[in-house]
Design a protein that fits this description.
The protein has 240 residues and is of the alpha/beta class. It has a single domain, classed as Rossmann fold, CATH 3.40.50. Helices cover 50% and strands 10% of the residues. It contains twelve helices and five strands. A five-stranded parallel β-sheet has the order 2-1-3-4-5, with helices on both faces. Helix 9 (125-142) runs parallel beside helix 10 (163-177). The longest helix has 20 residues, at 2-21. The N and C termini lie far apart (61 Å).
Length: 240
């Protein structure tokens, strides 16, 4: 009887601790996700025309993903992808619209780039990790077998003062991804930084934030190599 009561108390305390530790993204992220409604509707209109194929790879994320759209299909060929970058987004936005622009397409994998704007909006590295975890949970609740490739927050000259926090967010996300066989962390800083760790200066457009074509050459090869290593063998899952 005493043993049973002790187990009940322990179970209740664990539940309470779980709830206390629960991540409330709406308290952390203040960005108005409704501003993306027009862009999301355009994605939906395109999808309604029947252009998209189940079993593809959805590529979602902020402006670094959106600005890759013009060449991403060529860079990642022969993989079948669905372009869903919307510039200026953060993890909160990606989570808010996940079912409308990701899981509805029934992809076999998702490539995501978020965290850059999150840190710029003063979200802590620890909460970037929490948001990443919630993004993964949101996808896998609907698609239990989906594989997710997380691109690290990239370095940039404009946000150099934030780079330490970004590196911490990257380290936290990598450690998380390394624990799960359905997650892959892709560290783009390996090719966007010099050997001494300093940020390369000739890989950005005039705003010193977004990559130029040389930057995308480095970015796309590094990401493409990792994505193809994991996904080429699954390309036969695409419904033609």
């Amino acid at each position: 009887m005493i043993r049973t009561l002790l187990l009940m108390v322990l179970a209740i305390s664990l539940i309470g601790a779980d709830k206390a530790a629960e991540f409330d993204i709406k308290k952390v992220y203040k960005s108005p996700t409704a501003k993306w409604e027009g862009k999301i509707k355009k994605f939906e209109e395109y999808a309604a025309k029947g252009h998209l194929k189940e079993g593809s790879i959805v590529c979602v994320g902020s402006s670094s993903m959106a600005m890759w759209h013009s060449r991403i299909e060529k860079d990642l060929a022969p993989l079948t992808i669905i372009k869903r970058g919307f510039g200026g987004s953060n993890y909160n936005d990606a989570i808010t619209y996940a079912h409308r622009i990701i899981t509805n397409y029934k992809p076999r994998a998702v490539l995501v780039y978020e965290g850059d704007n999150d840190i710029a909006q003063k979200v802590s590295p620890e909460n970037v990790l929490n948001a990443c975890k919630l993004f993964v949970k949101t996808l896998r609740d609907k698609l239990p077998n989906v594989r997710i490739y997380v691109i690290s927050v990239k370095p940039s000259i404009k946000r150099a003062s934030m780079w330490e926090d970004m590196k911490k967010a990257n380290a936290l996300q990598k450690a998380y991804c390394d624990k799960h066989d359905y997650l892959t962390f892709i560290d783009v800083s390996e090719v966007l930084c010099e050997k001494d760790g300093s940020i390369k200066k000739d890989i950005f457009i005039k705003d010193n934030l977004h990559l130029n074509q040389k930057g995308y050459d480095l970015w796309s090869k590094h990401i493409g190599d990792a994505l193809k290593k994991g996904e080429l063998k699954h390309e036969n899952q695409v419904k033609k």
